[in-house]
Amino acid sequence: MRMKPENPIGIFDSGLGGLTVARAVRQHLPNESIIYFGDTLNAPWGDKSVAAIGQYVIKICRLLIQEHCKLILIACNTASSVAFDLVRDYAGIPVLNVIDPVVDYLKQHHAQQSVGLIGTKQTIASEVYQKKLQGSGIRLCALTTPLLAPLIEEGLVGHHIATEAINYYLSMPVLRDIQALVLGCTHYPLLKSQIRKFYRGDFSIIDSTDVLPKNLKNSLIAHDLLNRSQSAVTKFYVSDYTPMFAKLTRLFFSESVHLKRIDL
Ligand code: DGL
Question: Best mutation site among 16, 19, 37, 45 for ligand 1, i.e. most ligand atoms within 8 A of its Cβ?
Fold first, then answer.
């Protein structure tokens, strides 16, 4: 089917963390319709097997394609690390991930530096950032921070438990002497101000939600899919619904939205 610029962008994540990405897309590309899918039934994905993550993403892509999405944005570092090729081969429409824009940014702004990376177990184990940064002269210091996404999903942003977890992880010897830190999980932008407090002063914290909208716009233009008419509609689907999810949505998307449960 020929995709039209008015068709929506499909955005998905393991849960609600990817709403930080959806929020950035809406802010920078307000004409674009969005269909967001959060796999709240299966979250977190960060410590699931590659085979399980592959099964989840294919079901989600099938739904997004049925909904006539013109482009899929994988708003999850874990799935971007281990299932990007799978999604791209399956989808038959343009697919973007949250890692490539960050890698491009690092090459341009942090060449020859020591850069920290925090993320889920799967993201770090995949070594995807190291592979993509090969030859850039960047020394990547990677650390798994598996407590952070669940703390956020529990609504503990700003709580001293989150501050303690942040201080515990960021004090690890592997992150000593870094000149910048990559937030390698789409949940982590919600902890940015607490992370900034840890580093105090002038320190680069690289967050895919800051660098990705430009890449997305370029890709839409390249495929002749940028929506120039003002017809944006945003829909939010989840695979499991609880009142807590509705509450968190407000935190992650900065406004309350209607969550519809869909059985995949
Ligand atoms: N937000 C996801 C990411 O960027 C993962 C959180 C999880 O489900 O473990 O990796």
Answer: 45
* Cα(17) to centroid(ligand 1), Å: 7
53 lines ligand 1 (CB under 6 A): no
From the number of C-beta atoms within 10 Å of its C-beta (0-12, 13-18, 19+), residue 97 rates as: buried
pLDDT of 1 reads 65
- E strand intervals along 9-137: 9-13, 34-38, 71-74, 95-97, 114-119
pTM of the model: 0.95
Q: Could you read off the pLDDT of 71-98 as tens digits, one per residue?
A: 999 999 999 999 999 999 999 999 999 9
Q: Confidence class of residue 202 from pLDDT cuts 50, 70 and 90?
A: confident
Give the Å distances, CA to CA, from 246 to 125, 236, 237, 259: 32, 11, 11, 7
Name residue, tokens 């008015």: 6
Q: Which amino acid type is present at position 15?
A: G
Distance in Å, CA 20 to ligand 1 centroid = 12
Q: What is the pLDDT of residue 153?
A: 83
Q: Ligand 1, closest atom to CA 14?
A: 8
Q: How far apart are CA 42 and CA 76, in angstroms?
A: 14
